[in-house]
Write a structure and sequence with these properties.
Largest sheet: 6 strands, antiparallel
Shape: globular
Strand content: 15-25%
Helix content: 25-40%
Radius of gyration: 33 Å
GO molecular function, one term: RNA ligase (ATP) activity
CATH topology of the largest domain: D-amino Acid Aminotransferase, Chain A, domain 1
Structural class: alpha+beta
Organism: Carex littledalei
Number of domains: 7
Distance between the termini: 46 Å
CATH superfamily of the largest domain: DNA ligase/mRNA capping enzyme
InterPro entries: tRNA_lig_PDEase (IPR015965), tRNA_ligase_1 (IPR038837)
CATH architecture of the largest domain: 2-Layer Sandwich
GO biological process, one term: tRNA splicing, via endonucleolytic cleavage and ligation
Number of helices: 41
Protein name: tRNA ligase phosphodiesterase domain-containing protein
């Protein structure tokens, strides 16, 4: 029996552990059924077109009639055209003498138609939303809008990627509908086109190049359904998507819904526990346990793709999604697969293997095999007749400008024009490519043009920046999405018809604009900034293969093993990989580098087939030990793809994350003696006093060779400059624009950044920000321990040019003033409030988006001890005092305000605490020489155009192993001293243990991943970082170990229940005795081999719930 047959009986599951907030929901089962009632399985009627009437004149008016959407079709505006008759072949030849559209002239009467987790948990906790999670399959984006609407890849169409997508979609119809498939394929095409819809899918195949694992079968999963309608594009909710897919028997993804604070926090805790070793089996099992509702997909990831899971996608959806989902699942049960036992014809791999001459041959074979009911014509791939060459495919570039100059004839066109204008005005990295629409070849004429527009976004940050612009606009804008395709029809009508159309379209546009813009939130009641909350959570087992092995091939073969090691260590650092995994991966990757370079020499392994070598290597490595098996995740059962791999001309990579093969090259790069540059470079410092910028600039200037660049370099110290510093920088750049300038002055706000941006445009120079590397807080890019280090450094100064040193009256206040200039620019949280005073923006991302690069200066050691309570307390006290002072007096000097005495006391206390903790503060800092070396290497790469900004979203501790209550060691030592005074046996046991010196850390383990499972550990996420009351009831000790028996209390009225049979805190073990041996103490007591001293009354203490 085929394996998919059994999947039809998989049922969705709902948990009843915690009630979701009671909400009213606008969609019932009947209403959703009504919403989908237009999904008829018979041919849908065509909407009648109402033509405009009038008298023809010599002078024409141009009308753009769009088929707008994210690859959608079917115009809603129809007008009588000057040239109703279709173009004959001789006139088509005349039309195509030059690029299509070159001879079209627009005039005044022309028209056109055309780190988030916190916010997510907060919204779910308040009953405002539901958290939805789905699997991220490892494949390529494929979009389909019907045969005439088009098949599209990420940024292209008419190539092998889209041909493979059409074939796989057609084959899935055959499997689902059996003998009825041809009829259903034709009806599906017609339905999408007439309803202006597009479906987006993850296309997973073994023929389009390697990702994380070669799939066992070729398939696609529907991830989105879009409907243009007559106004704002509508993306189907997941319940609507599942209903749509089950109606048409299309494959759906596995989805989990989390509607309570407990389940939402447990989700992210589960991910943190599995992020470095999760596979499809362990991840799905954990999510099934923590989610409130689990809806299995129609295809099992393990069966069709394998165990290597790319990641999860978590997003915020409406609060009523859970209720809608239940209704839909009851109304639309999983459909049958009528063709599962029938002969489906040659598979994708068979067709590709049998046609190996070139890409065009493979495309034609795939489209022929899928049949004419799915693909009636092949014009998107091969053109039409004599007009099949590339010169007829491309449209004249001036068409875009003409499109922006014309009057919009409907709402969708107006919004598309606004989108394009905004992208061009802001100079976002995006291209607008226009191609002939060969489906309309019979309707083409000189004054009646049809073409497809592709909006190709070159950089991911464009999407974020565009969303920010959307929030600032006073009117609604179309969303900018990946895979944006538009069908456009440009034609002319006579003057009278145009005037009539102007009046009617103006009325229509005004009414639609008001209606749309008055709707500030979607149907689920979510504001736009919240509706867009989404995070991708990827797994290390996938990243090992793609980022570390595949993407590192070019570096390994070109620059050698040393450069490759630098590459993979930097990647792991950016991801926040745990130290243990770094060591294990370093050993494995070094072995891989030696193995593959010995086998291939200087001939680089192809990235599209890298798994041919990597998978057997990983399988052999995994078999050596259980630890290696966990590291690799899963390996073996390699699918051989060499004989059926799709032929891709020009070494294209449609997915974008596969690096191009550059061929063989020397093992070490040839670096020229000097790098000639015509442009200047400005290095500036968005920091605060004490960040070591002046010392860094001095070291750079004193280093022989500087940045290995032949341009002149100079440094300007802000404390020595009188007048406006940045104006002076501007004047010097004007005189010598090809200079490297070290702007030794803090650049703490957007006003300064805008000045620097202006210099880059006026003088054609590059600017690079150098920022202290800090984890930051929820509201500030600099953490408290970073601020403490900077204050300490300032207090060690003497004779500072800017008079900010130990002799200053109020250095602490000055540092706090600079610190608060960065308020609202967090590193930890990335979310926005368009209707509130605060707008939190990611500090690193904003700098990178503005200047294209970012250099980070190391400050603190990653494995440092926590900030001492005294230092933390004085920092928090100063911040509170500063805010009180600022709210009352603004920028008034602290010695002149209401809080003058408090400031004096605080400054005095600050100096003393910094002196008392000097040893700690010095110990946690990265050595200055190492920081300088790191910055120098990054700046050298910037100067050569090679630097890539590190990932700004990283976790500090990496993989979660267990949940525990962290206890204050000092209070435990005090308890032990009291017990020793009260009991001779305790005194005798403790007298030589030196607990005051040796007991530095203590905790009570609540649950361990290996013993209790991921879900058990994750369940404590709801209380993460909360204070937990603990009572110690007894001291147990033996010759080898000692522990305090514990009773854990409640948090916010909810009992914290340890999963350990005997909750305890281990306080001592003999040499070479592991702490887990303390678990045996109760048994040893019963056997008379250990002692138990009752603590009466119990000793009460508070701890903090943490993940380790």
């Amino acid at each position: 029996m085929p394996r998919n047959r059994g999947k039809q009986h998989r049922q969705w599951r709902e948990k009843h552990e915690e009630a979701a907030p009671a909400v009213s929901h606008p969609f019932t089962s009947d209403q959703i059924t009504e919403r989908l009632s237009h999904i008829s399985l018979s041919e849908a009627p065509t909407q009648p077109a109402t033509p405009f009437t009038g008298t023809a004149t010599k002078r024409g008016k141009e009308i753009w009639v769009p088929k707008v959407g994210y690859a959608s079709s079917a115009s809603t505006v129809a007008v009588e055209k000057e040239n109703e008759a279709s173009m004959d072949p001789s006139k088509l030849t005349e039309l195509f003498k030059g690029p299509l559209g070159a001879g079209f002239n627009e005039d005044a009467n022309t028209f056109a138609c055309a780190q988030t987790r916190t916010r997510m948990i907060e919204m779910v906790s308040q009953g405002l939303a539901t958290l939805e999670v789905s699997l991220k399959h490892s494949g390529s984006l494929f979009m389909y809008a019907g045969h005439e609407g088009g098949a599209y890849a990420k940024n292209s169409f008419g190539n092998i990627y889209t041909a493979v997508g059409v074939f796989v979609l057609g084959r899935m119809f055959r499997k689902a509908w059996g003998k009825e498939a041809p009829r259903m394929q034709a009806e599906f095409n017609d339905f999408l086109e007439k309803n202006r819809m597009c479906i987006s899918m993850e296309l997973v195949t073994a023929v389009l190049g390697d990702h994380g694992q070669r799939p066992k079968d070729d398939y696609a999963v529907v991830t989105a359904v879009t409907e243009l309608g007559v106004g704002k594009p509508k993306f189907y909710s997941t319940p609507e998507l599942i209903a749509f897919c089950r109606k048409w028997r299309l494959p759906t993804n596995h989805v989990w819904l989390l509607s309570t604070r407990k389940s939402a926090t447990a989700l992210f805790a589960a991910y943190d526990a599995l992020c470095e070793e999760g596979t499809a089996t362990t991840v799905c099992k954990a999510l099934d346990e923590v989610a409130d509702i689990s809806v299995p997909g129609s295809m099992d990831h393990i069966e069709v793709q394998g165990e290597i899971l790319e990641g999860l996608v978590a997003r915020i959806v409406g609060r009523d999604s859970s209720i809608q989902m239940k209704d839909v699942l009851k109304e639309f049960p999983p459909p049958p697969l009528d063709g599962v036992y029938e002969d489906l014809g040659p598979s994708l791999r068979d067709v590709c293997a049998a046609n190996r001459s070139d890409e065009k041959e493979q495309i034609k074979a795939l489209l022929d095999a899928v049949g004419t009911s799915m693909c009636p014509t092949q014009s998107d791939w091969f053109g039409v007749g004599d007009f099949s060459s590339s010169q007829f495919r491309n449209v004249d570039r001036s068409v875009l400008t003409k499109f922006l100059h014309v009057h919009p004839a409907d709402y969708s066109t107006m919004k598309l024009q606004e989108l394009i204008r905004l992208i061009r005005q802001r100079q976002f990295r995006a291209a607008f490519k226009c191609y002939t629409n060969f489906h309309k070849i019979d309707a083409l004429s000189k004054n009646d043009l049809y073409f497809k527009m592709v909006i190709h976004v070159h950089r991911d940050d464009v999407f974020r920046r565009y969303q920010q612009e959307m929030r600032y606009m006073l009117f609604f804008l179309f969303s900018l999405v990946l895979g944006f395709f538009v069908d456009v029809n440009l034609f002319k009508v006579n003057k009278e018809k145009a005037e009539e159309l102007i009046k009617e379209s103006d009325t229509l546009l005004k009414g639609m604009n008001i209606a749309s813009e008055s709707n500030t939130s979607d149907k689920n009641g979510l504001a736009d900034e919240d509706a867009n909350l989404m995070v991708k959570l990827k797994f290390l087992t996938y990243k090992i293969r793609t980022f570390l092995i595949r993407n590192g091939l070019s570096i390994l073969f070109k620059d050698g093993p040393s450069a490759y090691k630098t590459y993979y260590l930097r990647q792991m650092h950016n991801w926040g990989t745990s130290q243990n995994k770094k060591r294990e991966l370093g050993k494995m990757l070094d072995e891989w580098a030696t193995y593959i370079t010995r086998k291939y020499g200087h001939k680089q392994l192809s990235s599209s087939t890298y798994l041919t070598e990597a998978e057997p290597f990983l399988e052999r490595y995994a078999k050596r030990s259980p630890e290696n098996q966990v590291l690799i995740g899963a390996a073996g059962n390699l699918v051989s793809s060499e004989n059926f791999l799709a032929l891709i001309e020009g070494d294209r990579d449609e997915e974008g994350d596969i690096q191009r093969d550059q061929g063989a090259s020397p093992s070490s790069p040839k670096i020229p003696d000097s790098v000639t540059k015509d442009e200047g470079l400005v290095v500036f410092f968005p920091g605060i006093p004490g960040c070591a910028k002046s010392a860094l600039c001095k070291e750079i200037m004193n280093t022989p060779g500087g940045l290995d660049d032949n341009r002149p370099m100079h440094s300007l110290m802000g404390d020595l400059i009188k007048g406006r510093y940045w104006n002076l920088i501007s004047d010097q750049l004007k005189k010598k624009p090809n200079t490297i300038t070290l702007a030794d002055k803090n650049a703490p706000n957007e006003e300064v950044w805008r000045q620097i941006e202006d210099m880059t445009q006026r003088f054609k120079v590059t600017a690079v920000p150098v920022v202290p590397d800090s984890e930051g807080t929820d509201t500030n890019p600099f953490s408290l321990d970073t601020l403490a280090v900077f204050i300490y450094r300032v207090l060690q100064r003497a004779n500072h040019p800017g008079n900010l040193d130990a002799s200053s009256k109020n250095p602490g206040y000055v540092l706090l003033m600079f610190y608060h200039l960065y308020d609202g620019k967090a590193r930890k949280i990335i979310y926005f409030y368009s209707r509130s005073i605060t707008s939190r923006r990611n500090f690193d991302s904003e700098l990178y988006e503005r200047f294209g690069s970012l250099v980070k200066m190391p400050v603190l050691k990653p494995d440092r001890d926590p900030l001492p309570d005294a230092v933390k307390s004085i920092m928090e006290e100063g911040i509170s005092l500063f805010r009180l002072h600022q709210d009352k007096h603004g920028r008034l000097e602290p010695s002149k305000g209401t809080y003058a005495r408090e400031w004096a006391q605080w400054e005095s206390k600050l100096r003393k605490i910094m002196t008392d903790n000097a040893g700690y503060i010095n110990s946690i800092q990265v050595p200055f020489e190492g920081a300088v070396s790191s910055v120098m290497e990054q700046l050298k790469k910037v100067a050569k155009g090679e630097h890539r900004t590190p990932d700004t979203v990283k976790r500090r501790f990496g993989n979660i192993i267990f949940a525990a209550v962290t206890l204050p060691a000092g209070e435990i030592v005090n308890l032990l001293e009291k017990l020793a005074e009260a009991d001779p046996s305790a005194k005798n046991f403790l007298k030589e243990k030196e607990m005051q010196t040796n007991l530095k850390k203590a905790h009570i383990t609540l649950a361990h991943k290996r013993s209790h499972g991921v879900a058990a550990v994750a369940s404590y996420g709801i209380h993460l970082h909360q204070k937990v009351p603990v009572e110690f009831t007894a001291l147990l000790f033996s010759e080898k170990t000692a522990a305090l028996e514990a009773r854990v209390g409640s948090v916010n009225g909810e009992k914290v229940i340890p999963r350990n049979d005997w909750p305890h805190a281990t306080i001592w073990t003999a040499p070479n005795v592991p702490p887990k041996e303390a678990n045996t103490l109760p048994q040893l007591v019963s056997e008379g081999k250990a002692t138990r001293l009752v603590i009466d009354p119990p000793f009460a203490i508070y701890g903090v719930l943490d993940f380790y």
